[in-house]
Amino acid sequence: MDSITHLALGSCMGEAFAAKKLGRKAMLWGAVAQSVPDIDFVSSLWMDTPSGLLAHRGFTHSFLFCAIIVPLLALLAERWHRPHNISLNKWMLFFGGVIFAHIFMDAFNNYGVGWLEPFSHERISFNAIYVADPFFALWPGIACIALVYLRPRLAVRKKWWLMGLLLPALYLSYCLVNKAKIDSDVREILKEQHISYTRYFTTPAPLQNWLWYVVAGNDSGYYTGFRSLFDEQRKIEFHYFPRNDSLLFPVLSTEPLLKLIRFSRQYYTVEKWNDTLVFNDLRFGQIIGWQNPRGKFVFHYYLEHPGGNKLVVQRGRFEGWNWQVFTALLKRIRGN
């Protein structure tokens, strides 16, 4: 999830935990705890881009990190607020719940999280919700604003934090139902269209949960397309992209490339742009792919010019967006 949503959810959790005893300070503790796993952003200050990609949502999103940081935060809060009647165990349960909620929710995006770091580098990603989904973020955001302005200890505050926590949970459950429906449709369509594949995934297109981006293929190349929950036709208009591994021979053994391949979980293609080799991570979709199915991929890394790869995950996410693009997205959501 995006950082603002994490802050809002953490504030609601803090309010639920100890607002009657700590006032608005409880919201602050919740917001801080929800933000702690994202301290990995500092790695970008000294790491190269491929290393930073693996560090983000790596160890600081692991169960081991939770086990280390939770008692430290609990001890700090317990001492800070003395005298009080909140036991150390309750502080532990609170911080454990808030931080686990963070790393649990992040696993539903397509970036993936390293729950088992450093013992396993496997990334967990359920690909069920877009990283910035306004239909998920709206409710905790509204609740957090209301809780900031409402007077402490008003009975109505409980209704706001309940809304801020329960409605996102219900929406996430709805996203999982959508995911199951899309995956079932895609498997049948791949079979009907005689598309050979050894791996596939589906993930929501930007800002919603009704139009899904589909990738299926093998080590030779990948088919990409879109499937809406409202599509009536039992077909997907796929476009094929060869993987072009042969282009990697000049840089095959370099450490940055090996890290990029690991990060991509094998969902990658390679292209030659003029004199530059470009590595595409297919998991993040294409720039306005529903309108331009042959467009560039959002994540494209210049293998021979690494200095131009800052913010590589973000640089194409909303490139070229305007009102026409947005209306085209809405039209595609409504079905083919």
Task: Please give a structural write-up.
It is a single chain. The mean pLDDT is 92. Helix content is 44%, strand content 15%. It is of the alpha+beta class and 336 residues long. Helix 1 runs antiparallel to helix 2. The chain has helices at 3-22, 25-35, 49-55, 63-80, 88-106, 134-149, 157-192, 255-264, 323-333; strands spanning 199-204, 211-218, 221-228, 239-242, 268-273, 276-286, 297-302. It has two domains: 3-174, no CATH class; 193-333, no CATH class. The chain contains nine helices and seven strands.
Helix content: 40-55%
Shape: globular
Whole-number mean pLDDT: 92
The assigned structural class equals alpha+beta
Q: SSE order, as H and E?
A: HHHHHHHEEEEHEEEH
**Number of E strands:** 7
Work out the count of structural domains: 2
Strand order of the largest sheet: 1-2-3-4
Alpha-carbon distance between the two ends? 29 Å
**Percentage beta strand:** 5-15%
Oligomeric grouping of the chains: single chain
**Radius of gyration from CA coordinates:** 22 Å
How would you characterize the largest beta sheet? 4 strands, antiparallel
Low-confidence stretches: none
- Per DSSP, the total helix count is 9
